[in-house]
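Feature request, filed as a ticket because there's no other form

It would be nice if the structure record came with a short human-readable summary line next to the tokens. Right now we just get the raw output. Example of a typical job, pasted below so the devs can see what we mean:
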Amino acid sequence: MPTRSRRTKAPSPVSPHGEVTLWQEAAAFAARAHRNQHRKDLHTPYFSHVARVAMTVSRVFGCDDDVTLAAAFLHDTIEDTTTDYDDLEERFGGEVARIVANLTKNMAMPERAREADYLGRLAKGSWRTTLVKLADTYDNLCDARNYPEDKRAAHLAKTRAKAAQVLALADRSSDEPERLTRAIRALRALLA
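Raw output as currently delivered:
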């Protein structure tokens, strides 16, 4: 398998002559980064989650913005792989890296401080950050049905509580709130 040289700048999202788009490159990167990981059921490849998050952004929420889709594919790479902010910034640009960083919990912090820091960054993040988090929450709620029956109720309750927090943040977002309307409605419908 040939090695690929690292880019010094973010790729162009334009694809008129068969070039790979930003989100396609992000999908391939995420597939490699998460290749040996599985969901909590220990069978489902973890990449299926990030792919569903990106599909939710596109198909359920109606957003086909390359930067947002790239961030959706990459949203767990800093938190769950050896990828760091600099890797993402170099390969996908500062905006994608910032979105992913805002979606990443600092696992070095104590849990209460970590959650407060995370929610604070989500609250200050762009509409793209909020949209990806809404899609992540949407997929986690859908995926809760696949949990073992003895753990499903507790996991679903925890995921619903997190969804309520994310919806509260999204409702207060002043950064292009019209971009979030469809996503907020879809997540509320799933919770109903």
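Something like this underneath would help us a lot:
DSSP finds ten helices and no strands in the chain.
Residues 13 and 21 are 5 Å apart (CA to CA).
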